[in-house]
Amino acid sequence: MTVKSFFLSSAFWMVMGTLAGLTGAVELIAPDLLGNVPWLVFGRLRQAHTNMVMFGFVGSALLGAAHFLVPRLLRTQLHSERIGLFCVVLWDLAIGVGVAALAMGYTQNREYAEFIWPVDVAILIVLLGIFYNLLMTVRKRGENLLYVSVWYVMGALIFTFLSYFFGNAVWAPQTGSIWGMPDAILAWFYGHNILGFFFTPLAVAVAYYVIPIVTGRPLYSHTLSLVGFWSLLLLYSHIGTHHLLQAPAPTWLKVVAITGSIGMLVPVMTVLINLWLTMKGRISVIHTDIGGKFVFAGTVWYLFTCLQGPLQSLPYIQKVTHFTNWVVAHAHMGVLGFAGMTALGGIYFMLPRITGRPIYSETLADIQYWLVLTGMTGFFGILTAAGLVQGHAWLNGEVVYRVLPQLHPYMVARAASGIFIVAGALVGLYNIVMSLREARSNVGSGDLTGQEGP
Q1: Is residue 127 in some structural domain?
Q2: What pLDDT, in 10s, does the model give residues 193-219?
Q3: Calpha distance 431→410 (Å, rounded)
């Protein structure tokens, strides 16, 4: 039930989060269209959108996948379904309360750390609960070898807890922040680590689990997979300051951040080479499995995301791209393109194995794939171009308001791309609900673990 509940939550929050995003995109075209209703103004809506997508949609799917793959790789059962269900309920409650508070204007107002203090505490409790549950599962395992996906899941939980605690300044409940430049450094330590230590390890864990099974081959190299794991932990934690190159952050920290950003090519390419060599000659097989198809698309977006990231960390490039829609395109590539597509692949791959029967509609899943892929590709192209228009105009001394008319066509195209993504979310919610509904007669299959694994 834990895995099913997380997947259902993910489908629901994807709809809510993408609807909020589409509404915000429309407001960028016509700011007064909704009459400046307080809980629908862009400043509040944008915060609600990012948190629903990040924690609600992507986070729920990846945490659900973790509860599925860890027991199966360890040839045992989840330590406690009660703890798992408690974590799902508290997770959804925390996100719901947090989003409602943001809509009412209660916010800590820091990037990806907008949730108020009680919500922060609830999220930390969930992370602790999941870690304990999976750690106890590891302890009673029937498989001695800890496959790399288990390493990534456990590492993600530990480092996400620490990043969330320090990044949200949980010891300062009145503000959720510290002060001055140290707070900016801390905020981007956290903001970047949500992608690097929450989404990335969990999504890579899903890819390392799904791809070998779909291709019918063992992972190309277990050694390479561990090189990727440890190099990610070594390099990622300190690169957030590359968002502050124009700010008075210490020069040594900027240099460390830029160097680490370039160095991130090591864990990224290690993961991708390992996965793609596993798939070599089997791409057609990957695309016959809807889960594998989503995950493969996620690996491609991972490549694009992690080529663009080091590039935009360079001061010469950032002179043009900083504070522009280029950065927005990059964020969408990481969250929706890489982690989101991989998370959806995990859901569609794992649902039949949970329920004991095929998903409700392969056709609907394929439609969702193309809707989300089309929308994401549109986002990437449109916002990257808009960012370059903004950046070059500002670099040449143009003031902000004079550039806005030039951006208007891009914002219209952005909203149009968002329609594809919202449609994909609605299709996915219907398909997942129907898959779980039709499986009720198959209660006996439950969440029992089998012997399948890479």
Answers
A1: yes
A2: 999 999 999 999 999 999 999 999 999
A3: 32
Q: How confident is the model at residue 386 (pLDDT cuts 50, 70, 90)?
A: very high
- Helix, strand, coil distribution of the chain in percent, nearest 5: 80, 0, 20
Secondary structure (3-state) at 80: coil
Residue linked to tokens 């329920």: 355
CA–CA gap between residue 1 and residue 325 (Å, rounded):
40
* Mean pLDDT, range 398-417, rounded to an integer: 94
345, 206 in Cβ contact below 8 A?
Answer: yes
**Number of domains within the chain:** 1
Task: Tell me, rounded to whole angstroms, the distance of Cα 77 from its chain centroid.
Answer: 26
Whether residue 353 lies inside any domain: the answer is: yes
**Helix, strand or coil, per DSSP, at residue 238:** coil
Count, in order, helices (H) and strands (E) of the chain. Answer: 18, 0
pLDDT at 123 over 60: yes
Cα-to-chain-centroid distance, residue 404: 30
Q: Which pair of structure tokens corresponds to residue 212?
A: 């070998």
Tell me, yes or no, whether 359 lies in a domain: yes
Segment 152-178, tens digit of pLDDT: 999 999 999 999 999 999 999 988 899
DSSP 35: T
* Amino acid identity for residue 365 in this structure: A
Query: What's the mean pLDDT when you consider all of the chain?
Result: 92
CB 151 within 8 A of CB 226: yes
Question: Which structural domain range is residue 340 located in?
Answer: 2-441
Q: Is residue 383 in some structural domain? A: yes
Residue 448 reports pLDDT greater than 90: no
- Give the chain's largest Cα–Cα span: 67
Do residues 78 and 133 lie in contact, with contact meaning Cβ atoms separated by under 8 Å?
yes
Q: Rounded to an integer, what distance in angstroms lies between the CA atom of residue 206 and that of residue 347?
A: 10
> What is the rounded (10 degree) CA torsion for 158, 164, 166, 167?
140
Tokens encoding 161: 């807890």
Q: How far apart are CA 23 and CA 61, in angstroms?
A: 23
- Residue 140's domain is classified under what CATH number? 1.20.210.10
pLDDT of residue 449: 36
Inter-residue contact 48 to 103 (CB < 8 Å): yes
172 touches 142 (CB < 8 A): no
Per-residue pLDDT at 446? 37
User: Which of 10, 163, 155 minimizes the C-alpha distance to 70?
Assistant: 155
